[in-house]
Amino acid sequence: MSRFDPAVFAAIVGEPHVVTDADAARRFLTDWTGRRTGRADAVIRPRSTGEVAAVLTACRGRGIAVVPQGGNTGLVGGSVPADGDRPTIVLSTERMTDVGTPDPVEMCVGVQAGATVAAIEAAATSVGAHFAVDLASRDSATAGGIVATNAGGVHVVRHGGTRAQVLGIEAVLADGSVLRRWNPLRKDNVGYDLPGLLAGSEGTLAVITGVLFALVERPGQTAVAMVAIDSIDEVFALVAAVRTAGLTVEAVELMTKAGVRLVVESGSRPALAGESAFQVLLEVSGAEPAQRLADVLDTVGVADAVVEDGPARALWELREKHTEVIARASATVPVKLDVAIPRRGMGGFVAELDVWAPSEPYPCRPIVFGHAADGNLHVNLLDIPDEEQSAAAELMLAKVVERGGSVSAEHGVGRDKAAWLERVRDSADVAAMRAIKHAWDPEGLLNPGVLFV
Ligand code: FAD
Ligand code: 2HG
Ligand code: ZN
Questions:
Q1: Could you tell me the pTM of the whole model?
Q2: Are 243 and 292 in contact (CB under 8 A)?
Q3: Any idea which ligand is nearest the CA of 418?
């Protein structure tokens, strides 16, 4: 196996874009949580698909592993390399930020992999359309990253996840060849859905260089309510009442008293005067949405609520600040578990968590929030000593599986949950996934240690 030679890569992307200086490379080698720091021989920053193809060809010939990285906002340790001796580069898409002109007839926009979610939405807005994926990391998370993780976000209840928005894809395979399906057709059943396969592939099958995204209609007038509730089951009654009233549900986000309290302590204005066990943020669209939403809340008889015209950023702030506030509030890096639970079981799961957390040998502060209508809960366990964290995660994920849930709802498997793959998928399923991995990346160069242990 040849040693890494920076000159080979400098000849492809230009010397300034082969980052070997330790200080300059640091931000690419530690993940967003600060939990994982890895090692790489260099960070390579190509500008074009042709450069990515040449980089992968050079890596293949030299046995160099490639860790694709977009905004590095991933929360499962998949965007940074492992800490070992293996020759490795981080391939950053941060210079691949082109956003094409959106097409208002075909309702699509083509972007390079490093374009941020915020940039894609800005382009969509310029033609009166809307990009359906939105998440609090929108200013950093990239097209390639959201496709590679099949990110969810706040509008899954309305439009589905990222995979549902992918019309076409351009990606460089491990052998340096370029796969391109780039057609805005909504109907095209010729062969396997390779763009769909790359959604959720977490950098293990190819480096995504471009995405042709579907755009959706703007929601028009929206209204946002923050509603006090005592039990999670009330969420579903509320959502049903809103739908029955003819309003369209755009987002349904759950928070707990403990989480809202932390965000308010960090300086945000509380929405409601009192404290309830849970607060749910409901965003709806339709004609006169604020008045109609208020009427629905009256009819249902909620104890406390506030309704504002959209976009109601102050209400959204209470939800969107959870991740950063939790990171600052915990004495140790929080254990972050992104799980899905069958909706009828969510209340029981959260109640059990409250009993379990203080009674374990390593008592922790659980903060739960998430995309309630999708059954997606973000369970953050604060203050757990480092040496106890994997046992705590293990216990929690086992409870999720017992309840028929998923150990990864929207963040992916990454390195953090790779050991769970064989526990939650049956042997034929894992064998099929391994066969795909082997066919696309026979030498195991793409993101080793992610998805598969
Ligand atoms: P990275 O973190 O750089 O990479 C993530 C994975 O994708 C890695 O495995 C990486 O190898 C791979 N990858 C990246 N680019 C490419 C490429 N071009 N080709 C192939 N593989 C690639 N996630 C949600 O699903 N929903 C949320 O609501 C949400 N909210 C968040 C809020 C905050 C404040 C933060 C910090 C994170 C949040 N996330 C959320 C997690 C994260 O933003 C998403 O997983 C996002 O999709 C990652 O995009 P990225 O560009 O940062 O990818
Ligand atoms: C969100 O929905 C993200 O805000 C982050 O998926 C979840 O911080 C988390 O646990
Ligand atoms: Zn989320």
A1: 0.97
A2: no
A3: 1
